[in-house]
Amino acid sequence: MVQNRLKRRVKELRELIEKYSYEYNVLDNSSVSDALYDSLFSELKQIESEYPELITSDSPTQRVGSSLLDGFQKATHKTRMLSLNDVFNYDDVIDWVKRMDKLLPNIKHEFFTDIKMDGLACSLIYQDGVFSQAITRGDGFIGEDVTENVRTIRNVPLKLREVNGYEYFLNGRTEIRGEIVILKKDFEELNRKRVLAGEVEFANPRNLAAGSIRQLDPSVVSSRPLSFRGYDLLRDNPDEISTWMFAYQSISLLGLARNEEADVFNNLNGVINYIKKWDKLRNDLSFNTDGLVVKVNDRHQFFELGVVGKQPRAAVAYKYAAEQATTVVRDIVISLGRTGAATPVAVFDPVVVAGSTVKHASLHNADEIERKDIRIGDTVVVFKAGDIIPQVDSVVTDLRPNNSTKYDFEIELVKQFPDLEFERPEGEVVYRAKGLTSVVLLKRSIQHFASKGALDIDTLGEKNVEALVDGGLVHDLADIYNLSFDQVIELDRFADISTKKLIHAIQDSKSPKLSRFLFGLGIRHVGSQTAIDLSNRFGSIKSLAEATIDQLRAVDGIGEIVTESIIAWFSDPDNEALIEKFESLGVRPYFEKSSGRLTNTSFVITGSLKTMSRDEAADKIRELGGIFQTAIAKDTTYLVIGEKVGKSKIEKAQSYGTEIIDEDRLIKILKS
Ligand code: IVH
Question: Which of the listed residues 116, 141, 282, 310 should we mutate to test ligand 1's pocket, taking the one with most ligand atoms within 8 A of CB?
């Protein structure tokens, strides 16, 4: 039901964004932080870019500018004010250039780069060198005439400067487009004064700039420290401005401010280095930025490349990775660490934060869940602590589902670990499994790892494990592969032959079958059959570790508890480290793809079949090397439709491009 869930999500996001946007733009009184607003907005944009069929013309993402206040005259832009396509990484930039190269082959581009200012776009018109009009962006075609307000901005000259060689800009119409911003230092100064005067501080420079320029009283505007910085220059005859760099130089010479950081490069390497440089230095700029702008420097080429939608093909906005993002908590699982401590972990719909995908975050302990009141189904703001470890910042309670309930850690402990008893020692926040110290857990896990159904290391029985752990030679599962003859022979239990035998047996186990290795890891509720199913479905530890809740649940025979347990296991950093350690010690589980005719072909059956039971069909599919799934995933090959069919499955199959077939066709596939 991904489709329906997404539709609902999109609707919720739009409603909330509209609400916040109204508070921000019309009431000038935001109830939430900019960062939260931006996170919700980018979540919506992300979904829409993946599922363009969900875009509607009234989506906030389709809107340029914002709703108009009464009180300003509308004014038409002589040429449309465009926006820019966003890109998020170097590959996007490279792809952008490739697309242009296809349209303009054999032309070497020079690239113009600049910092993208986080303010509000405005166009200034000079007639015969005299400031005559200022128009906000509005919808790109029509904006608001804010001439009188812009006139109060002290760095907007009322007359253009006359400079040798540039006199022609003082004849006829010269339009200078740019961004109205409030410099960081001016903003801080203003807030300091407000605090002293006992007034409420302004939230951020962008809000304040936008709110100020649309004040109806120019004297209020004049009390706000607005600045204008140009980024475009337009003349009736476009040939007068050959490059973007020329436009920038002219803007300066005519007496207006612009970013001095702008630069030109004759290759992509230069652009990438510029991006890297400003990623480090952007916080030191005098104004706030939300990225960079990269354009084809030659304006003739720029215009020739044309416009798609509202965006010119020859320019992109490079957005630095958001440092926080919103996502939905799909589940809260409990991970039993190697000391027996139970740690709750929130599992999310994957989301990119500060440049990498985040799927889960530790919630630390029951008190923390209680304090932040984090519930399954909640939308949360996620950030990276110290830029590495994902953390949940807060819950967007406005998006909380109606039927949500508080998370009860103790009840969940019983559900996930029915055979264990937990205690929470006085004054501690952590629940621990009774009787399970790290030593006991370690011994058990090694014995299990070495047992018949797992890696089958016969010399590694109970007594030997005791000796190795108590002798301080093994601190985690992978350590057995570190054992040396000299170390082991030191222990009382071992003599020359027994030591050799042990070390040999261990070294011989370095290429286990994936399913046995998986079983051997001792993930709760992953028995040997489940390990086989998982290994057939995912084919490697890496893809299993990356599996989402939906992918796991789609594996036949895997229910909620097993899924939670697998997710919890892989979300424990100790286990991540353990897997890496196995790898570095040369332990290479192998997976032999069953080489049947239906290898890599997966089936979901919905409704009942006439000629066979589901189990029979499943067996037959597996026999031929195919994969039988209980729910449709993105990679499902066939959806087999029986009688009394669920509509949601069909919709989902259609959205994933899964082929829909009937029973006759299935029989043919199985027989052919
Ligand atoms: S160039 C045709 N340069 O970002 C290209 N835009 O998302 C015109 N902006 O509409 C835009 N700083 O309001 C350009 N250095 C900069 C900018 C900049 C901020 C804004 C501008 C533009 C929007 C695009």
Answer: 116
What is d(CA 65, CA 67) in angstroms, rounded to the nearest whole number? 7
Least Cα distance to 181 among 285, 318, 86 occurs for 285
Is 116 a residue of the active site? yes
Domain of 83, CATH number, reads 3.30.470.30
State in Å: Cα 244 to ligand 1 middle. 13
Quote the ligand 1 centre to 371 CA distance (angstroms).
42
Torsion, Cα 144 28 84 257, to 10 degrees, reads 70
Average pLDDT over residues 638-642: 93
- State the pLDDT confidence band at 361, using cuts at 50, 70 and 90: very high
Tokens 């908590």: give the residue.
Answer: 329
Q: Is 121 in the pocket of ligand 1 (CB under 6 A)?
A: yes
12 found inside a domain: yes
Asked if 25 and 101 sit in the same domain, the reply is no
560 CA distance to ligand 1 middle (Å): 48
**End residue of a domain, out of 286, 319, 352:** 319
pLDDT of amino acid 597: 86
> What tens digit of pLDDT does each residue of 399-456 get?
999 999 999 999 999 998 999 999 998 888 899 999 888 999 999 999 999 999 999 9
In the reported structure, the alpha carbon of residue 338 is separated from the centroid of ligand 1 by a whole-number distance in angstroms of 52
116 lines ligand 1 (CB under 6 A): yes
Same domain, 89 and 37: no
Name the active-site residue from 116, 359, 620, 652.
Answer: 116
312 lines ligand 1 (CB under 6 A): yes
Is there a domain that residue 184 lies in? yes
In ligand 1, the atom with minimum distance to the C-alpha of 83 is 24
In a domain, 329, yes or no: yes
Report which protein residue has its CA nearest ligand 1's atom 16: 116
Q: How confident is the model at residue 65 (pLDDT cuts 50, 70, 90)?
A: very low
pLDDT tens, position by position, 280-318? 899 899 999 989 999 999 999 999 999 998 899 999 999
Q: Give distance in angstroms: CA of 83 to centre of ligand 1.
A: 7
Q: From residue 145, give the alpha-carbon distance in Å to each of 66, 68, 74, 150, 229.
A: 14, 11, 6, 10, 18
Give 318-342 as a 3 state SS string.
ECCCCCEEEEEEEEEEEEECCCCEE
Query: Does some domain include residue 595?
Result: no
Asked if pLDDT for residue 68 goes beyond 50, the answer is no
Residue 257 beta carbon below 6 angstroms from any ligand 1 atom: no
Nearest CA to ligand 1 atom 13: 121
CATH number of 51's domain: 1.10.287.610
Average confidence (pLDDT) over 624-646: 85
For ligand 1, atom 17, name the residue with the nearest CA. Answer: 116
Mean pLDDT in residue range 325-342: 92
Same domain? For 252 and 366 the reply is: no
Give the mean model confidence (pLDDT) for residues 66-81. 77
Helix (H) or strand (E) holding 671: helix 663-671
pLDDT in tens, 37-63: 888 988 998 888 888 888 887 788 775
On whether both 264 and 400 belong to a single domain, the answer is no
Q: Domain range spanning residue 554? A: 438-584
Count the domains in the chain.
5
- DSSP string of 474-518, one letter each residue: -SSGGGGGG--HHHHHTSTT--HHHHHHHHHHHHHTTS-BHHHHH
